[in-house]
Write a structure and sequence with these properties.
The protein is mostly helical. The chain has a single domain (11-168), classed as Arp2/3 complex 21 kDa subunit ARPC3 (Orthogonal Bundle). It has helices spanning 11-29, 36-73, 84-101, 106-132, 135-144, 147-169. Helix 1 (11-29) crosses helix 2, helix 2 (36-73) packs across helix 3 (84-101) and helix 4 runs antiparallel to helix 5 (135-144). The chain starts with 10 loop residues before the first helix and ends with a helix.
Amino acid sequence: MNNQNVLAMDRSRIISAVWVVTLVGVAMLAPLLHQQLITGTIVNATLFVAAIILGRRMGIMVGIIPSVIALTVGTLPAVLAPMVPYIMLSNALLILVFIFLKDKNYWLAVCAASFSKFIFLYMVSAFVFGVLTQKVLATMIAQMMSWPQLITALAGGTLAWIVYYKKAEKGYK
């Protein structure tokens, strides 16, 4: 008898693993573009696609990595390092709100998730940096964590729809 162990994975787990690697790869490369509106749109699109394809748990996992990479490569200025855990939480919030509403209406889910992320980041950044830094710097950081976050989340939801749903209509999933 042969004493080899065989690892068997069903097709759906293999497909999920490929999606995780692909989405994490895209989210890791996006910060290298060094432009917040482009990077944010791509990262948010990966979060929406991860939520659609992988669900809550794996989607949140995909949402944790981009913030660390953005800080490491300089897309996220070092002064924003205290925000990284909150950015991760905001990504999780975006995914959870989106998943909760997506079956009712995709666009309602994108808007509600985007606004939730925006409001959370804006409030947290104003508080965190209001405590840690001078008022002028806190105001500037809160601005970075406000409208650009809303715009990139909405644009990411639109990009995810184009990438996922439009291709699905043509038979590519």
